[in-house]
Design brief:
- The protein is mainly α and 140 residues long.
- The chain has 8 helices and no strands.
- It has helices at 10-14, 17-34, 39-42, 50-63, 69-74, 79-83, 90-105, 111-139.
- The termini are far apart.
- 26% of the residues are buried.
């Protein structure tokens, strides 16, 4: 079954569409507030997470094969560049992934989709870390 994920809108549908992705994102940010090891990344976000929640939801909708809602509302998607100003090292990347792991595990997704999704989420998380490191290196 995992072979279908990543093709057309299969992943979007497996995540429950926009409503399911919204639930995932809401839980992700709740976990970020709760998890002690996530405090280093929580402080990188504004107190009011309304816009952050919306941006992540819309990004994930398109990223998972649904309609490209992020670019319609916020313009071009440049995830690494948008995060390059932040100090993201392995610990911050891993804290973000830990929050996402908990949020994904709590969703009513098929087990193989959970595995697929977490493997795929590593890619943008790592790209943000690399962009942050390149910025730091060029500033030195």
């Amino acid at each position: 079954m995992a072979g279908i994920y990543g093709v057309e809108d299969a992943s979007f549908k497996a995540a429950g569409g926009r409503i399911g992705i919204g639930k995932l994102v809401d839980r992700f940010y709740e976990v970020m507030d709760e998890l002690p090891e996530a405090q280093s990344i929580r402080v990188m976000h504004p107190t009011d997470l309304t816009v952050a929640r919306d941006k992540l939801t819309l990004f994930l909708c398109g990223w998972l094969g649904g309609e490209k809602l992020f670019s319609k509302k916020y313009g071009p998607i440049m995830i690494p560049k948008a995060h390059a100003h932040l100090d993201i090292e392995e610990a911050e990347r891993d804290a973000w992934l830990a929050c996402m792991n908990i949020a994904v595990e709590e969703q009513d997704y098929a087990p193989d989709f959970k595995t697929y999704l977490l493997e795929q989420l590593f890619v943008p998380a790592e790209r943000c870390r690399v962009a942050s490191q390149k910025r730091k290196e060029s500033a030195a």
